[in-house]
Amino acid sequence: MTDTSRRTLLAAGLGSLAGAAGMAMLSSQPGGQTPSLIPSAHAQATGNSTWERIQKLKVLRAGAAIQEPWYFKDPANGSGPGTVKSGQDTWRGVGPVIAAEIARSMGVQLQIVETTWGNASAGIQSGQFDFMLCLDGNPTRALALDFVPTPLLWYPLAVLLKGGLTITTWAQANDPKYRWGVILGSSSDTNLTRAAPKSQITRFQNASEMNAAFQSGRIDGIFSLGPTLELTQAKLNVGTVQVLTPRGALPAGVAIRQEVDQRWKSYLTTAVSFFYNTGFTQSAYEQFLAYRGVPENKVLPIMRERWS
């Protein structure tokens, strides 16, 4: 499918989603609110749901935590395929591209709000932004947030190992002699803590700090998502990426605020499924690979059906 035909299909399929989602309000509230759930100040003041706020203000706010290939703020303010403008900033990555297509389909303006993985849940709860792509659901987060039931994409959890180090299984990684790095609050943090509790785990606020620790030899490897590590390895030109066994496919999530009004969740469920099935999500990923000069045939696709 060409880029032109894909965008024509997207426009035809998504152009009427806003109206359809507007009819999809349900009466039951997903999950139970917990004391940690913080309703947004805007919602408290106006009583508006997320859907109503977006339709009224014509602004869609997307959370973004810098980590390639999901979110990257281009310091050169470049242009071309895969670039998204928000205010004075130029963003790249799967998250901004999909968020921009959602905003375009809804006929609203996109505003990208920078956050961190550790603060993302609180940002959604407090109403700093309306949703966040690639913020994965887990039992703890589900106490305070709601999640779109359709996976955004798929990825394996992997490790970038320092030169000369070879491990192939989770059992081998669970050893006190190994020093692993992971981003605080990420899904990789949750999985590594559960799978390798005996190892030494250092949690970093961002990828730059973690990469610096890896390059200096302060950690033996970086645990993250396969696509992220493929790009990190290409950028640093050091180490090897290993998908440990048993290998599991992890779904990337879309997080939203818990609400009685289900129209926003209904709309996102339809849109995310449409993007995945038409190949738009994979195309957004490939655009970022091209920007980084990484051949797409050298990395796993984010469509699980294409894994060999």
UniProtKB/TrEMBL annotation:
Solute-binding protein family 3/N-terminal domain: from which residue to which, for each copy? Answer: 59-292
**What residue stretch is flagged as signal peptide?**
1-20
Q: Which UniProt keywords apply?
A: Signal
Recorded superkingdom: Bacteria
What is the name listed in the Swiss-Prot or TrEMBL entry for this protein?
A: Periplasmic component of amino acid ABC-type transporter/signal transduction system
InterPro entries the record matches: Solute-binding_3/MltF_N (IPR001638), TAT_signal (IPR006311)
